Amino acid sequence: MKTMKIWRKSRLSESRANSFANDRTGAIYAIAFAILAAFYLASCSSDDDNEDKVEQVTLYVSAETGTYQNVPDNNYVEGMLIKENGAANWECVSFLEITGFTYERGNEYELLVKKTTLVNPPQDSGNVRYELIRIVSQRKIE
Q1: Are 66 and 126 in contact (CB under 8 A)?
Q2: 67-94, pLDDT tens digit by residue?
Q3: In whole angstroms, what is the distance from residue 10 CA to residue 16 CA?
Q4: Structure-derived torsion over alpha carbons of residues 122, 128, 129, 133, reported in degrees to the nearest 10
Q5: pTM for the full model?
Q6: What is the rounded CA–CA span in Å between residue 103 and residue 82?
Q7: Cα dist. 95→59, 99, 103, 140 in Å?
Q8: Beta strands 98-99; 91-93: pairing state
Q9: What per-residue confidence (pLDDT) applies to 72?
Q10: What mean pLDDT is predicted for residues 26-47?
């Protein structure tokens, strides 16, 4: 009978040990799952890097024109000079660069435009798009 009691005690001890081990393993899996889920959610929560940036800016268009190098054929072509509010230098761009705007030689403009900075621009063009909201001022320069 003594052997039977010892066997039962050792059997109970094994059962408790297995239960404890199973509880620990389950807890470890739960913690690992929670950590992985947190990393996954954190990486998906910031889509700012994958969206185009859209803002309203003031653009100035010079009465003078300039030249820029055309991308497809590398020829120099005439274009209008623009700069954003606060910028120091003029940039020469195509006369068609601002959607909805028609440039007239000899006029300088202040424009309110929607500026879209593309995250994934087409390979053969720039990463900025301008769309006219309204002409703030137009002045004939003689």
Answers
A1: no
A2: 998 877 788 999 999 999 989 999 999 9
A3: 10
A4: 170
A5: 0.62
A6: 11
A7: 14, 10, 6, 18
A8: unpaired
A9: 72
A10: 68
Q: Which two tokens stand for residue 10?
A: 């050792």
pLDDT-based confidence at residue 10 (cuts at 50, 70, 90):
low
Instruction: Please give the single-letter amino acid code of residue 90.
Output: W
The one-character DSSP state at 30 is H
| CA dist., res. 13 & res. 7, Å (int) | 10
Q: Report the alpha-carbon distance of residue 99 to residue 3 in Å, rounded.
A: 94
pLDDT at 14 over 70: no
Core vs surface per residue 5-31: b (16+ CB within 10 A) or e: eeeeeeeeeeeeeeeeeeeeeeeeeee
Cα gap 9→22, rounded to integer Å: 20
What mean pLDDT is reported for the chain?
81
